[in-house]
């Protein structure tokens, strides 16, 4: 079970409230065991998730320890995660010149998180610190997801910034009037990449050309949505993207998942964050690296045409 803000808590996995009695917790666990056990046709991954959840809160002692860490009573936090704006980007990993960077990575996602958090807390409720771990952990998962997404975008931006002066990146880019945004546009010698940074708080897999997983809503179509946004952006800028990269935490998938491009649709690759830099530096097999002149020409066109969601 991931420590991402978007990850399901053991109580959410078991389908009970954090205030449920020990008997209610035990009944929920047993019911889920019957439904998820592989011997009765259940899903092995779901069965494993239920087991992990029970290990965390299954006994009074384990539950008390978990609640102290996740739902602390006092204002004192033993370890405060770096959730506040800008803190989630981590430390620089490379000295020297950085990639050219424009826009505000994670800005729109953070704004959405704050809006939903205030709406959930209720009108007139004062929120002294919207990034207090206890508050984040008590919020519904769909709200926590927006904070997790902001952190994911900031993490990607930090990695891209260390690529060096041969690269340029634009963040929180408006794709079109009705097509939302593209998290990152990265230009370098290996090509022009559109990047989606995500963290749904759980593993995903590819099924019929779309990403699915317990952490995603059945109606979610992340690949379809990002393809639409990238097509709209490519048309408005009159450019062709080398590929679309969907970047996830390493624990969300074991290996890259590829949806081959068709017609004007670029190839879409879902990859662990640890592999992002390799793709941006070296490109994709079978695709020629661009020339310096082409990169320079594209940079000028993108710089003139790109608009940001914060504008």
TrEMBL record:
Residues 9-70 form the J domain. Residues 64-80 have a biased composition (Basic and acidic residues). Residues 1-22, 64-104 are annotated as: Disordered. Pfam families: DnaJ, NERD. It comes from the Bacteria. Signal peptide: none annotated. InterPro entries: Diphthamide-biosynth_chaperone (IPR052276), DnaJ_domain (IPR001623), J_dom_sf (IPR036869), NERD (IPR011528). This is Heat-shock protein.
């Amino acid at each position: 079970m991931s420590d991402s803000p978007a990850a399901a808590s053991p109580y959410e996995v078991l389908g009970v409230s954090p205030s449920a009695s020990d008997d209610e917790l035990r009944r929920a666990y047993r019911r889920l065991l019957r439904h998820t056990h592989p011997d009765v046709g259940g899903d092995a991954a779901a069965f494993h998730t239920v087991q992990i959840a029970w290990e965390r809160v299954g006994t009074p002692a384990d539950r008390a320890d978990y609640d102290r860490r996740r739902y602390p009573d006092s204002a004192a936090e033993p370890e405060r995660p770096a959730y506040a704006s800008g803190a989630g980007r981590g430390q620089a990993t490379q000295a020297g010149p950085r990639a050219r960077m424009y826009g505000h990575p994670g800005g729109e996602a953070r704004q959405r998180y704050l809006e939903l958090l205030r709406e959930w807390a209720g009108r007139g409720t004062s929120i002294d610190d919207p990034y207090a771990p206890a508050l984040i952990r008590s919020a519904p998962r769909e709200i926590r997801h927006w904070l997790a997404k902001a952190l994911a975008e900031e993490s990607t931006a930090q990695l891209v910034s260390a690529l060096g002066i041969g690269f340029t990146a634009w963040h929180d880019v408006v794709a079109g009037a009705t097509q939302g945004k593209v998290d990152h546009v990265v230009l370098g010698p290996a090509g022009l990449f559109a990047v989606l940074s995500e963290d749904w708080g759980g593993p995903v897999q590819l099924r019929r050309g779309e990403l699915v997983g317990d952490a995603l809503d059945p109606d979610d179509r992340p690949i379809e949505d990002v393809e639409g946004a990238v097509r709209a952006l490519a048309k408005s800028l009159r450019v062709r993207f080398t590929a679309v990269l969907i970047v996830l935490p390493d624990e969300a998938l074991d290996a890259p998942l590829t949806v081959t491009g068709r017609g004007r649709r670029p190839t879409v690759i879902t990859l662990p964050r640890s592999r992002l830099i390799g793709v941006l530096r070296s490109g994709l097999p079978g695709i020629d690296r661009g020339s310096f002149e082409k990169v320079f020409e594209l940079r000028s066109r993108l710089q003139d045409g790109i608009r940001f969601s914060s504008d």
